[in-house]
Structure formats: structure tokens, C-alpha cells
Specification:
By secondary structure, the protein is of the alpha/beta class. It has a single domain, classed as TIM Barrel (Alpha-Beta Barrel). Helix content is 45%, strand content 17%. The protein has 11 helices and 10 strands. The strands form 2 sheets. Strands 1, 2, 3, 4, 5, 6, 7 and 8 form an 8-stranded mixed beta sheet that branches. Strands 9-10 form a two-stranded antiparallel sheet. α1 links the parallel β1 (2-3) and β2. The protein starts with a strand and ends with a helix. The chain binds zinc ion (ZN) (2 copies).
Length: 280
């Protein structure tokens, strides 16, 4: 069993890299990719620990990009060689755009009469500050009853506190990943165009023309019908398949590492071998 999509507390998960690896070992994963948002901090901390545990650790990251008006999450993997120094430097620019979003989000919330500060929220995070950290402070201060309620009331795309983040164009992100020695995969396609399969096929076609070479077929949010359709897209555009749980620990308590939502996930081991071939 393998899992190629997981988050640590260095982005918006709740498990430290050491806790995540211990869980991977406990459930018998043979390979794990850490794909934190915008940072390799969790992966970097996990490298020596994974070696001790005899677990194959794959370097990954998740980037927020835009394609036309749509937000598209993109996974990037570096299964053969480490990402270039130039790519790591580019991440600093992405992290700055996230800080800018956070400042605007605080202004917006304060305008709604919510008395929280950026300092309080930043204290919740490690390498970067994400929306679950805002949610936790909103719950602590009694503005929401739990994390989900905080998102519904304030933080989700359709909620009153939402502010848009400056996202990089998807073709630029793909090109940077490829130049850095990695492979780009469209993350959880179910969230990109819901069940509008024709729109999704257009997006996948356009991203593959930019150099994207994989698509996340297996994911905790995907039904068996979704998986079958994404596999057909993979064949149509000659893409490798990727997959993982999108584990976030306590921030998404129903999702388990390796097995997804109530056991709906099983990523074949062959996926990683094929990914290595596709990047080489
Ligand atoms: Zn995502
Ligand atoms: Zn994710």
C-alpha cells in the first residue's frame, strides 16, 4: 500500500512529520509522499526519519494555481531527483502571496466584527499559516462551534469572510515544476469541475499541453465512477496516474492515511513505479 498525498503540521495538517511517518509505518505503507502546500519543510524534516524507518519517502508539494477563472490544485513530485534550488527559491514568492492573503483575511474578519489578530493565528502554524489555523482561533474564541462551522461561516469560498488569494497561472507552475526536475499532476480533479466532465477534459487537455504528465486518479473524494473516468482521461492524454488520501490529521478527521474515507482508497504500488518512469 502506498499514499502519495498527505499533509503535515508544516502546512495545514495536524501531524508532525515524525507522527505522520509513525502512522505510515503502523498501517504498513511501503511509500509515502508528503505534499504540503507551498513548502518542503515537512518533507525535509522527514527525510532522516524515513531512512531510519526503512520507508520510501517521496518528495512532493501541492500548489494553488489558476486556469482561466478556476482554481486548480496541482501536485508536483520529485521521485527521482530533488527539486532545484531555483524552484525552492520560487516557493518563497508563493509563501509571500499567502501572507498577503492572510493579512487581507484578518482585515476582512475584523471588518465583520471578529476580534482576532494575525499574531494569534500565526501562533497556530509552523512553516506557514493556512485557513485551518484561522478556523482554530475562531473556534477557540467562540465565533464558531467547530472547524467545519468556521469554514462554513467565514472561510469557505462562498462564506462571508472569504478573500481570494493571488494564484499562479497553471502553465507557469507546470513549467517551473518540469524545469525543476519534477512531474506535475492535477490534484483531486473532482474539485476542479465537479461533475462537468467535458469542462474537466478541456482543462486536462490544456494542462497536458503545458507539460503536465499526470493526474490524481485515486483520492478520498473520488467515487468508483470518478476513478474510472479519470483513468479514461489518463489514457486519452497519455498521463501517469497518481493517488493518495489527502490526509490532514485532525483537520479532516474522517480521512485515514492510506485508506481514505471509510476504506474507499487503495493506491496500487505500480503507480509510483510508473511515475518514476514518466519523470525520467
Ligand atoms: Zn488540494
Ligand atoms: Zn492536499
Amino acid at each position: 500500500m502506498i499514499d502519495l498525498h498527505s499533509h503535515t503540521d508544516q502546512s495545514d495538517g495536524t501531524f508532525s512529520p515524525a507522527e505522520l511517518l509513525a502512522e505510515a509505518k503502523r498501517i504498513g505503507l511501503t511509500a509515502l509522499a508528503i505534499t504540503d502546500h507551498d513548502t518542503f519543510a515537512g518533507y525535509d524534516l522527514a527525510v532522516p526519519l524515513a531512512a531510519d524507518l526503512g520507508l520510501e519517502l517521496v518528495c512532493g508539494i501541492e500548489l494553488s494555481t489558476k486556469l482561466g477563472g478556476a482554481s486548480v490544485h496541482m501536485l508536483a513530485y520529485f521521485p527521482v531527483r530533488p527539486p532545484s534550488a531555483e524552484f525552492r527559491e520560487w516557493l518563497l514568492f508563493l509563501q509571500e502571496s499567502r501572507r498577503d492573503r492572510n493579512r487581507r483575511l484578518i482585515d476582512r474578519l475584523q471588518g465583520l466584527g471578529v476580534a482576532i489578530t494575525l499574531e494569534e493565528v500565526e501562533r497556530q502554524g509552523r512553516s506557514l499559516t493556512a485557513r485551518p489555523h484561522f478556523a482554530r482561533v475562531l473556534v477557540e474564541k467562540g465565533y464558531a462551534k467547530d472547524i467545519q462551522d468556521a469554514f462554513d461561516q467565514f472561510l469557505d469560498e462562498h462564506a462571508k469572510g472569504y478573500v481570494q488569494r493571488q494564484e499562479v497561472p497553471v502553465d507557469e507552475a507546470v513549467k517551473r515544476v518540469v524545469a525543476a526536475g519534477g512531474i506535475a499532476s492535477m490534484a483531486h480533479p473532482i474539485r476542479v469541475a465537479k461533475n462537468n466532465w467535458d469542462t474537466l477534459a478541456e482543462y486536462v487537455g490544456s494542462m497536458s499541453r503545458s507539460g503536465m504528465k499526470a493526474i490524481e486518479v485515486f483520492h478520498s473524494d473520488h467515487t468508483p465512477e470518478n476513478v474510472a473516468y479519470y483513468q479514461s482521461l489518463a489514457r486519452r492524454f497519455s498521463l501517469a496516474e497518481t493517488g493518495g488520501s489527502d490526509f490532514h490529521g485532525g483537520n479532516k478527521p474522517l480521512i485515514s492515511l492510506g485508506t481514505g474515507l471509510r476504506g474507499n482508497l487503495c493506491v496500487p504500488d505500480s503507480v509510483l513505479a510508473d511515475l518514476k518512469k514518466a519523470v525520467a
